[in-house]
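FORM 12-B: Structure-to-Sequence Request
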């Protein structure tokens, strides 16, 4: 797998087939004729050229293998590389070529010609490694370093000098890379690798990207600067005018000083407020002036920064808790009281955590998840009984994503993940959701007609197109590396000048991140602190990043100085987040022995916020120098206030310290004891290195700055919106309007988001975004299982309708809640009363009348929830949603996002939108939920937006009818009477019906009634088709149509038959009996996909996007062949006391271990959780296992090439290397590598091992011959449900009895393309049948065509095995689909049972059967 996620988005990926645009022959010969790679690995998405901020991570990729058997370690480092590594330079540069793929070079060239100058004729790229050294490396160390940096089969491509001259008049070199004062996550992971192989002299390792531009004339300095700005992110990167000579920062730590409030009063605070960007308002300035005058002393700069962050609007939610005066009337309740009222109205509800922690939770089920018998150490895993509740959290990270979208979204996703696991005394991660609201995209060549070309965008913020691409890349990449599936979401764009003259647009975007999980019922409450308890930090070191983010997020964008906006930029490290989570999980899995008394995640405000939270109210003394720093020049203020991510603050008892230290050591996670609870009621920050006379940095009474603070008062006047009726251009036809509507990002396909994000890691996803034979992203609901052994789980959905709030805030709130429920209702739920929701509020709340509109929305939501008997149990707010642009302040549309969730008693009972009864003549029912029956109002609709309007009549819903409809749908699901269902929302019923046909790959014939109250006869068909009144469309069999419709009508909900499903791909839509819309299903689907594919071209290789787009029109349902009947493992094997033991081995960043353990256990074997740190420390030995499995994930975040760090850890640790070699040489052993593990097995040389056998064991190849798995042809991470074929004649023990199968399997990787450096090796692999699994097209034919083959592997090769059949390496993920409910699609006639086994279970059962028939050479011993 690979870490490279945003490099190619700026054109930097790897060379494909050695082709370069305009590449001189002198350099072309350096590339391998069969390869496609580029340097570092950054596994994720892009190969197009959307923006600068995703470039760095896409330039980085690579893949290398370690040949355990035969390659001498002293080999291949060239003398010049070794000599340079042995020099005394503080930072040395090594170069790796190529650094850009041919497809990316073409795309980048086109963009440069368009945006810089047409005189540019070619672009080439190379990667530069800037290696910081504490001392010169000796020859042995230099060889290790060179091996880590080079490509194994092309060692000569790592050079001591650049091959780019750039001295010719028509050539120049542009180099960009990380800011030298900003240590990147890449460097953190790279130096973790170097430490693991004994290279402790390496202090930092940063990649820069070098571009050689050739042009018809010399480029001007302005043109060079324009190109540089196009390929780097100014917030996190810089242009390198010369090679970096040092990573040392000249900055001298700023001193702690006092601010003269006693002498100058409020004036002193006003001055420091402006200088430091503290975001104090008038109330704050008065309060803190009085506070310190009453204390009789001046505050320190550290204290003021502390207060500004921890008491910012972002952190303290003053607005929600404040008093509101609207139109001169003081309201009786504040917003917090309003949103909590529905929950308080039903004290017997199922809520167990609400409005008081990082997440909310509801009552769950008793389950038997796979858990270690000895958490925190090497251990067997087995199902264990637990009582686990269900958890949800949701938040936004808007300001950071406006400034630097990629890292902003990374840290937004990471912060929400820590919210998920830091609930109670620790909780269990599950799955994520995501949403994006941005301004008009203005896509080159695909501009939508309603987008105003004259709108001005702020220079200090990223443009909307970049935000959408880079933020979604950042969030996706972070989740991919962490190992959290993303299973639901939404996207919306908007920018418009309203009738009153106001411009409304998401210049400050919404980056929404939600997540579901579980929590042990014993761990719901954080215990009270006690004097003597230890304050502990776990996670990554402190860096000078994210300074003042809490305050910066509390004011409109553009209010601060640009340098202060830069200081708020953050840095995500999903690898560290993964390690942090594993520490917390080990504590949680100790059950009653959980050592955590309290846990809080570190977010806005950094230490100054989280530490105060955990010591409140007793107080404590904190040693600032106990905090581990990654930059020794950080000041006390920076250590205390920086928002460096991937950190938790814990409270533990002193006697638990040893246990926690052992867990952290095993997971390689930093742990620091930074203070103790002392009972003083104060927070005292001490600096043991302070000069005499330096004031104490922080010495504050906690109640005065965190606890008992008076509320603020906010005053507003309501405003009546100026509205105009919708007026379409003369002659507009419904067909023309449909094409505009289908191209809107809020309506059209979200393919550009779903294919680049892992939607199935954990193996616990029962329903994700994509449905049907074509796997289109239109699912309404996401469903997550509690365990692999049970069928209970959680359903979640999202509702948001912001454009309707521009007309009627109250209706918008009801519609948002209604949309969440009409999405959620398709999963079997415990009850409507059990539905809870986290609501996120995004407004420019303190501007104009927005606060009054927000109050109106809150009251409407409260009343609707009370009538529905459901409730809100949490939420977040972002109340500065405005930005300055073009001489005006542009407010975003007010928005509330409703994230609903509920318990699922049966995760197999889920209805999806894809039509399934075409052959049987399925009947289509319409359930009308309009607040006025038959009303079809077009205000705030996609149709109105498509014509640059908002209209004047807002749709609405009556909660009572919504409640009745919920009950009817649930009854139909329970009885199995509904085959497909979809909600009516953006785009109206026309979009709903078309999406159902698109996903079912069939046709429809529908006749809708003419609206009785249409604004005009001309608008009547448009209203019937495009009005966004809430409703449902159901597909039922002809035999059940009358029963289903009567069920709704008897409940008082209008329901009628509107049409039927057709087997041919023909769409016929009538209104009042008259044909208004029609066409071919595939042709209309192409229009729906058009904008998404335009965005795809900015993220992936254009040739791949073209191939998928052109082929979609003729796509058919994939054919399966299953020559055997899957069956569960016999009971006697499951209960055996002498099971085959399998080591499930993971490294830093692995994330597929638990689903693998579940599959191994389901096959009747005993899985063990074994880390590489266990093997290195001697806590585990491989000689006690019959099988080992290398799991998927992102070892070391896949920097320096996928699985390279993992392979290096084995290769350069003698004892560990010997263990693996001995295991391989034992004829009674077997191994499996999946994805990252597959890449590792290639690096180790365990597959295909085509050399002559030695003592009955397949012998490995030399490094230069060894096949490798390199970057996907698309240049990005691919998550796909694909079809593969298993060979009849494979020697693999794993595939016995599966030959001839053509079945689906999950794939999720960025570097899965197998590359054979030597044609003779490929020939041997084919001759010996060592490529036993192939990617196939829908007809079952092995293929190289994209996307059926997601990586471009020759001949469709998806796996390699050894000649003796014991070792199998495969890129797809069988461990995520060994149960039928895990399969996102399968032909209904294949004979699988919803709660039964899936075909891939047999792969694991085969290993057990082989092991049982091959007696172990030695008895197994416990360790």
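FORM 12-B RESPONSE
SEQUENCE OUT:
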């Amino acid at each position: 797998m690979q870490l490279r996620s945003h490099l190619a988005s700026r054109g930097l990926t790897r060379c494909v087939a050695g082709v370069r645009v305009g590449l001189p022959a002198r350099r072309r010969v350096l590339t391998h004729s069969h390869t496609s790679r580029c340097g570092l690995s950054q596994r994720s998405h892009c190969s197009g050229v959307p923006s600068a901020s995703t470039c760095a991570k896409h330039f980085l990729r690579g893949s290398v293998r370690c040949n355990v058997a035969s390659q001498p370690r002293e080999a291949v480092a060239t003398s010049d590389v070794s000599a340079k590594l042995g020099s005394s330079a503080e930072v040395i540069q090594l170069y790796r070529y190529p650094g850009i793929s041919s497809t990316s070079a073409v795309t980048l060239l086109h963009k440069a010609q368009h945006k810089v100058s047409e005189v540019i004729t070619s672009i080439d790229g190379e990667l530069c490694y800037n290696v910081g050294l504490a001392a010169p490396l000796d020859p042995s160390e230099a060889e290790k370093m060179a091996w880590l940096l080079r490509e194994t089969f092309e060692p000569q491509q790592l050079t001591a000098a650049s091959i780019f001259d750039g001295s010719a008049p028509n050539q120049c070199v542009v180099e960009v890379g990380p800011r030298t004062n900003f240590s990147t996550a890449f460097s953190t992971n790279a130096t973790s690798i170097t430490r693991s192989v004994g290279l402790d002299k390496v202090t930092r390792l940063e990649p820069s990207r070098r571009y050689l531009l050739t042009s018809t004339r010399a480029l001007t300095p302005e043109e060079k600067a324009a190109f540089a700005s196009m390929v780097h992110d100014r917030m996190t990167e810089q242009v390198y005018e010369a090679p970096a000579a040092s990573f040392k920062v000249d900055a001298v730590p700023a001193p702690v000083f006092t601010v003269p409030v006693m002498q100058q009063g409020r004036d002193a605070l006003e001055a420091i407020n402006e200088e430091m960007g503290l975001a104090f308002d008038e109330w704050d300035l008065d309060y803190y002036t009085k506070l310190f005058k009453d204390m009789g002393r001046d505050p320190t700069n550290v204290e003021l920064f502390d207060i500004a962050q921890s008491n910012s609007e972002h952190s303290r939610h003053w607005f929600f808790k404040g008093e509101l005066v609207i139109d001169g009337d003081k309201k009786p309740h504040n917003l917090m009281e309003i949103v909590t009222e529905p929950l308080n109205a039903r004290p017997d509800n199922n809520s167990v955590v609400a409005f008081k922690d990082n997440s909310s939770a509801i009552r769950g089920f008793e389950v038997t998840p796979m858990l270690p018998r000895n958490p925190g150490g090497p251990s067997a895993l087995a199902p264990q009984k637990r009582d686990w509740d269900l958890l949800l959290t949701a938040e936004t990270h808007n300001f950071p994503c406006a400034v630097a979208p990629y890292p902003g979204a990374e840290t937004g996703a990471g912060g929400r993940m820590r919210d998920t696991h830091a609930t109670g005394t620790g909780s269990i991660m599950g799955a994520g959701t995501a949403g994006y609201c941005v301004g008009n995209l203005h896509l080159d060549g695909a501009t939508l007609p309603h987008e105003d070309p004259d709108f001005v965008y702020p220079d200090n913020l990223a443009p909307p197109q970049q935000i959408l691409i880079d933020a979604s890349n950042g969030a996706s990449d972070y989740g991919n590396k962490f190992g959290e599936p993303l299973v639901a979401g939404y996207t919306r764009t908007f920018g418009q000048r309203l009738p009153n003259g106001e411009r409304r647009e998401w210049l400050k975007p919404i980056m929404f991140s939600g997540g579901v999980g579980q929590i042990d019922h014993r761990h719901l409450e954080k215990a009270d602190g006690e004097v003597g308890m230890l304050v502990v930090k776990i996670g990554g070191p402190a860096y000078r990043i994210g300074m003042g983010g809490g305050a910066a997020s509390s004011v409109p964008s553009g209010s601060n100085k640009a340098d202060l906006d830069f200081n708020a930029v953050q840095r995500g490290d999903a690898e560290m987040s993964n390690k942090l989570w594993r520490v917390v999980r080990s504590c949680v899995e100790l059950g009653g022995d959980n050592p955590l008394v309290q846990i809080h995640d570190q977010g806005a405000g950094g230490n100054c916020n989280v530490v105060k939270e955990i010591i409140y109210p007793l107080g404590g003394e904190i040693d600032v120098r106990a905090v581990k720093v990654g930059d020794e020049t950080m000041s006390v203020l920076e250590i205390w206030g920086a928002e460096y991510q991937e950190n938790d603050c814990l409270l533990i008892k002193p006697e638990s310290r040893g246990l926690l230290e052992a867990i952290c050591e095993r997971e390689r996670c930093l742990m620091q004891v930074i203070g103790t609870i002392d009972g003083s009621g104060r927070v005292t920050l001490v600096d043991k290195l302070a000069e005499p006379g330096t004031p104490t940095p922080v010495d504050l009474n906690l109640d005065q700055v965190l606890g008992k603070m008076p509320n603020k008062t906010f005053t507003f006047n309501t405003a009546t919106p100026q509205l105009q009726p919708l007026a379409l251009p003369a002659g507009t036809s419904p067909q023309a309007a449909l094409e505009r509507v289908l191209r809107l990002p809020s309506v059209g396909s979200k393919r550009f988001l779903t294919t680049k994000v892992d939607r199935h890691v954990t193996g616990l996803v029962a329903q994700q975004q994509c449905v049907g034979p074509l796997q289109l992203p239109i699912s309404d609901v996401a469903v997550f299982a509690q365990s692999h052994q049970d069928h209970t789980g959680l359903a979640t959905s999202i509702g948001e309708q912001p454009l309707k709030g521009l007309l009627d805030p109250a209706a918008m709130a009801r519609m948002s809640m209604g949309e969440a429920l009409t999405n959620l209702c398709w999963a079997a739920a415990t009850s409507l009363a059990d539905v809870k929701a986290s609501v996120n509020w995004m407004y420019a709340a303190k501007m104009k009348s927005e606060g009054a509109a927000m109050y109106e929305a809150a009251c409407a939501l409260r009343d609707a929830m009370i009538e529905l008997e459901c409730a809100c149990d949490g939420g977040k707010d972002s109340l500065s949603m405005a930005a300055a642009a073009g001489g005006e302040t542009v407010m975003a549309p007010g928005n509330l996002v409703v994230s609903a969730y509920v318990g699922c008693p049966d995760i197999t009972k889920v209805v999806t939108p894809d039509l399934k009864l075409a052959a049987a003549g399925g009947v289509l029912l319409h359930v009308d939920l309009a607040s006025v029956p038959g009303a079809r109002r077009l205000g705030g609709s996609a149709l109105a937006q498509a014509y640059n309007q908002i209209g004047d009549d807002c749709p609405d819903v009556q909660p009572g009818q919504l409640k009745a409809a919920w009950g009817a749908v649930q009854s139909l699901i329970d009885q199995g009477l509904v085959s497909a269902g979809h909600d009516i929302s953006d785009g109206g019923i026309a979009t709903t019906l078309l999406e159902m046909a698109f996903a079912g790959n069939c046709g429809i014939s529908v006749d809708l009634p003419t609206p009785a109250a249409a604004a005009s006869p001309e608008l009547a068909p448009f209203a019937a088709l495009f009005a966004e009144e809430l409703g449902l469309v159901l597909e039922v069999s002809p035999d059940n149509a009358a029963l289903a419709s009567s069920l709704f009508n008897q409940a008082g909900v209008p329901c009628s038959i509107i049409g039927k499903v057709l087997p041919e791909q023909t769409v016929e839509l009538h209104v009042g009996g008259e044909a208004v819309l029609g066409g071919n299903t595939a042709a209309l689907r192409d229009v729906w996909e058009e904008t998404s594919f335009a965005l795809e071209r900015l993220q992936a290789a254009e040739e791949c996007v073209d191939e998928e787009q052109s082929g979609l029109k003729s796509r058919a349902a994939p054919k399966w062949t299953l020559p055997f009947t899957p069956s569960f493992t016999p009971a006697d094997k499951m209960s055996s006391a002498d099971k085959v033991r399998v080591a499930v081995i993971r490294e830093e960043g692995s994330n597929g271990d638990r689903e693998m353990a579940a599959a191994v256990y389901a096959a009747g074997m005993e899985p063990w959780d074994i880390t590489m740190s266990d093997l290195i420390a001697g806590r585990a030995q491989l000689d006690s296992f019959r099988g080992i499995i290398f799991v998927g994930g992102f070892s070391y975040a896949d920097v320096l090439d996928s699985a390279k760090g993992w392979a290096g850890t084995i290769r350069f640790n003698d004892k560990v290397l010997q263990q693996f070699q001995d295991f391989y040489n034992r004829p009674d052993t077997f191994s499996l590598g999946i994805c990252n593990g597959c890449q590792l097995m290639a690096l180790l040389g365990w597959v295909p091992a085509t050399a002559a056998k030695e003592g009955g064991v397949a012998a490995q190849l030399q490094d230069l011959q060894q096949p490798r798995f390199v970057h996907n042809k698309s240049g990005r991470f691919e998550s796909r449900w694909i079809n593969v074929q298993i060979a009849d004649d494979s020697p693999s023990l794993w595939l016995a009895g599966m030959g001839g199968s053509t079945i689906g399997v999950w794939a999720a990787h960025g570097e899965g393309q197998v590359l054979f450096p030597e044609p003779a090796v490929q020939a041997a692999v084919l001759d010996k049948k060592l490529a036993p699994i192939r990617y196939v097209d829908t007809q079952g034919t092995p293929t190289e065509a994209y996307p059926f083959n997601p990586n471009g592997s020759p001949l469709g090769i998806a796996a390699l095995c050894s000649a003796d059949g014991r070792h199998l390496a495969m890129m797809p993920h069988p461990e995520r689909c060994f149960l039928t409910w895990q399969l996102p699609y399968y032909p209904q006639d294949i004979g699988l049972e919803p709660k039964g086994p899936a075909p891939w279970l047999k792969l694991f059962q085969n290993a057990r059967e082989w092991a049982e028939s091959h007696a172990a050479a030695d008895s197994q011993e416990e360790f």
